């Protein structure tokens, strides 16, 4: 079966997470993503995880660059810029997430590109947007978690502002980047017209907090973090993580009546309104956790689920990868490592389409691995390709 984006070509100038994860999502739907890297490769190829690389390559890079072809170009050279423009001229989409102004300095800004390809969908990701007082600031996930209010409401009452354990702003921004690229491609398909799409980390960080922002800005009420560890500042007990005899368990929404039925703590039924469960959330959590600490995790989870109480395991990544539902969903897959030929484990495909299913059809590329093939596709002869490599316009093509 064909992918939904078969026939779509994307000139991908992105780096780090916001852009590459977005373009990978489109590549999995069949788009031909040509990853245009600097000589030597994208910076994140060497970004260490805990001070280490995975067989010479960053695991972060490996997670976000499958199904792509790679070419190395010196965009600061006239010839390198011209090759990039030739690729863009035949592309449907250009994606980039440099700081505002960088692509213009390369001669690859929206107006430059539109002269060569008027129908281009030009997708820009940034930290704060292309205009405004913060355009020159560095845009990075932790900074945007802090600036958007997220860290202020994460953690316990006496904790300092606390970031979450993943690059959640980059992740959401990448999804928005892919989604809005699809909107623009749909418009291009219907009208033949391109447009510029802009996505930024600040807007993305505020966007995924839509319900919390709306509550705080419109209600005459303070939403303080709890002392005991209720997992959201604006939610009542029992919402949180509970210690068990041999681990932890998560309990989300549940009536005090149903909790009392499972635990035998009849006093919990006294908290019979939402106001009471919120005002007394710390007391409820402490009393409930005194009980859960005496219970084996599996037995407790089974008892809670039997009463239709929203509860779940607390897994580390190794446990998650072996979870029977995760296995059934095929959300952990093995892919060939670009340097060793061995396999590494990574995340699978999160959604399914019955007629145009996404597909993992190639491993992440080595830097510049497809330079010769891509230039050949664009009509360059082998001798000319070798000359460009000797002059440093493109990367080494001797392999």
Automatic annotation (TrEMBL):
GO molecular function, one term: CoA-transferase activity
UniProt keyword list: Plasmid, Transferase
PANTHER family: BLL6097 PROTEIN, SUCCINATE--HYDROXYMETHYLGLUTARATE COA-TRANSFERASE
Protein name: CoA transferase
Keyword Transferase: yes
Organism: Halobellus limi
Region feature (Disordered): 340-378
Origin organism lineage: Archaea, Methanobacteriati, Methanobacteriota, Stenosarchaea group, Halobacteria
Region forming the signal peptide: none
Keyword Mitochondrion in record: no
Pfam family name, one: CoA_transf_3
SUPFAM superfamilies found in the cross-reference section: CoA-transferase family III (CaiB/BaiF)
Biased composition (Basic and acidic residues): 360-375
Superkingdom: Archaea
């Amino acid at each position: 079966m064909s992918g939904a984006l078969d026939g779509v070509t994307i000139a991908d100038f992105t780096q780090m997470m916001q852009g590459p994860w977005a373009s990978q999502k489109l590549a999995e739907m069949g788009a031909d993503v040509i990853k245009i890297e600097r000589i030597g490769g994208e910076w994140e190829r060497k970004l260490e995880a805990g001070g280490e690389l995975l067989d010479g390559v960053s695991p972060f890079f490996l997670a976000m660059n499958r199904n792509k072809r790679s070419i190395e170009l010196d965009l600061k050279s006239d010839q390198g810029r011209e090759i990039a423009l030739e690729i863009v001229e035949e592309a449907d989409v250009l994606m980039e997430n440099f700081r505002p102004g960088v692509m213009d300095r390369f001669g690859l800004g929206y107006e430059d590109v539109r002269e060569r390809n008027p129908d281009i969908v030009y997708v820009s990701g940034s930290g704060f947007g292309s205009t405004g007082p913060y355009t020159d600031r560095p845009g990075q996930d932790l900074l945007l978690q802090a600036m958007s209010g997220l860290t202020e409401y994460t953690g316990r009452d006496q904790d300092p502002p606390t970031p979450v354990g993943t690059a959640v702003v980059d992740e959401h921004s990448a999804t928005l980047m892919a989604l809005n690229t699809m909107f623009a491609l749909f418009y291009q398909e219907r009208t033949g017209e391109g447009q510029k799409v802009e996505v930024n980390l600040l807007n993305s960080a505020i966007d995924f907090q839509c319900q919390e922002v709306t509550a705080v800005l419109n209600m005459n009420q303070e939403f303080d973090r709890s002392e005991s560890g209720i997992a959201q500042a604006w939610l009542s007990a029992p919402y949180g993580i509970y210690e068990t005899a041999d681990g932890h368990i998560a309990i989300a929404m549940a009536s005090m009546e149903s909790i009392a039925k499972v635990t035998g703590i009849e006093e919990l039924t006294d908290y019979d309104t939402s106001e009471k469960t919120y005002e007394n959330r710390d007391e409820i959590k402490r009393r409930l956790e005194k009980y859960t600490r005496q219970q084996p995790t599996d037995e407790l989870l089974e008892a809670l689920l039997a009463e239709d109480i929203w509860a779940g395991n607390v897994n580390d990544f190794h446990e998650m990868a072996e979870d029977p539902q995760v296995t059934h969903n095929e959300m952990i897959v093995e892919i060939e490592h670009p340097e060793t030929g061995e396999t590494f484990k990574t995340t699978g495909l999160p959604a399914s389409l019955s007629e145009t299913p996404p597909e993992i059809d190639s491993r992440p590329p080595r830097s510049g691995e497809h330079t010769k093939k891509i230039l050949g596709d664009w009509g360059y002869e082998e001798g000319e390709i070798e000359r460009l490599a000797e002059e440093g316009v493109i990367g080494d093509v001797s392999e």
